[in-house]
UniProtKB/TrEMBL annotation:
SUPFAM superfamilies: PLP-dependent transferases. Its cofactor is pyridoxal 5'-phosphate. It catalyses: L-aspartate + 2-oxoglutarate = oxaloacetate + L-glutamate. GO terms for biological process: amino acid metabolic process. In eukaryotes there are cytoplasmic, mitochondrial and chloroplastic isozymes. Homodimer. NCBIfam families: PRK09257.1 (NF006719). GO terms for molecular function: L-aspartate:2-oxoglutarate aminotransferase activity; pyridoxal phosphate binding. This is Aspartate aminotransferase. One of its GO terms (cellular component) is mitochondrion. It is an enzyme of class 2 (transferase). Pfam families: Aminotran_1_2 (PF00155).
Amino acid sequence: MDLGNGVAPVGAPVTSTSATTSVFASVPEAPQDPILGLNELFREDPSPHKVNLGVGAYRTDENRPYVLGVVKRIEQEMAADTATVHEYLPIEGWPEFRRLSAHLVFGADAPALREERVVTLQSLSGTGSLRVVAEFLAHFYRPGTVCCIPQPTWGNHKNIFPRAGLPVREYRYYDDANRGLDYDGMVEDLEAAPTGSIVVLHACAHNPTGADPDMQQWQGVLEVVRRRRHFPLFDCAYQGFASGSFERDAAAIRLFAAATPPLEMAVTQSFAKNMGLYGERVGALHVVCAEAAVTRAVMSQLKQVARAMYSSPPGHGAAIVTRVLRDPALFAEWETEVQVMSGRIMRMRRELHQALQENGTPGNWGHVLTQIGMFSFTGLSASQCLYLRERYYIYMTSNGRISMAGLTSDKVRYLADAMKDAVLHAGKDGGSGGMAPKI
Ligand SMILES: Cc1ncc(COP(=O)(O)O)c(C=O)c1O
């Protein structure tokens, strides 16, 4: 595979141009990940005023990482349980975790589950699940297929698919001028994509724009996907986190999965955000097949991919999730906590919007209210973002994305006033839409 790093192919003589003894002397340094690089800069900043709005993890209104109460209790029980062992899990993960995580995404009575057409593999959170399905599709889906991703999208999509051997191509998604979904552009590009393309869709709370299709628009996307015989791949990283309702946030997936005749598709599911289990790497890959007869072979190949990549998934986080999903009382408690988290994010949107109105920041800021999920795509230019960082120690990605989950009540006014200053005094160049230089 060409990684574009200039490494000579296997078998070529190793030539050294310097006196160094390392065989890695010619390895070029890769660019830093824009988000992780931003966090590093933030950590090093000594200013007491600094605010991190680049972070993709929930923070409380006191700006602390949050361990859900229900998770804390289960962990205490697990620690006290002397029967706990640390054996390997099966390659495909725990059966109960797989079954219950599929129920959460599709609904327990989904026809595809009843008809046993869904293959579920426990994997390493959302990213690991995406990497496994990408490699599976690169081997077993149509040769030469392109993977269509939204413009803009979560940055890692552009790493994951090409690394697995799937070239990416962007479809229009966001309308900068109207600060919302470019539905017509999206449908037009999906219509024009090669027949049978893989189409990556954010199930809810699109990252980074916070702009989701409404149900009528999802119906339109479904129609074009079916007409063009595309393969939808739903990236579901925020179920429950967007609206506070697991059902509502899975509505697009359920619409596609219930289509008749059946549509083949895949869903990658993460429990990082909605259960606050970021570092535990809990997630699943679901492949919905047109007929039950093929599921056995599909599962066997997914296991081959996982076996060669990481052998078997981690157990601790999955044990926590399984306990929550299996017990109606714990599930209800979880749902309440998810509503508290999503509610705080929505409150930050309202407060920021109000503060921008009150201080008279030029421009229309209605999108801060209407966008959904963890992020707001502010429309601030790269220069304005840099201005905020240099003058106000406010850190955000250079495409103008701010994490509403990283904003706290005591910083709302500070941010709004800083934004006003940036809008009035910093350049508009760079714009949003991912064209801006990296941090
Ligand atoms: C759209 C999207 N997909 C997938 C992920 C993967 O998250 P994780 O691998 O932590 O589950 C993220 C995380 O930020 C995301 O925003």
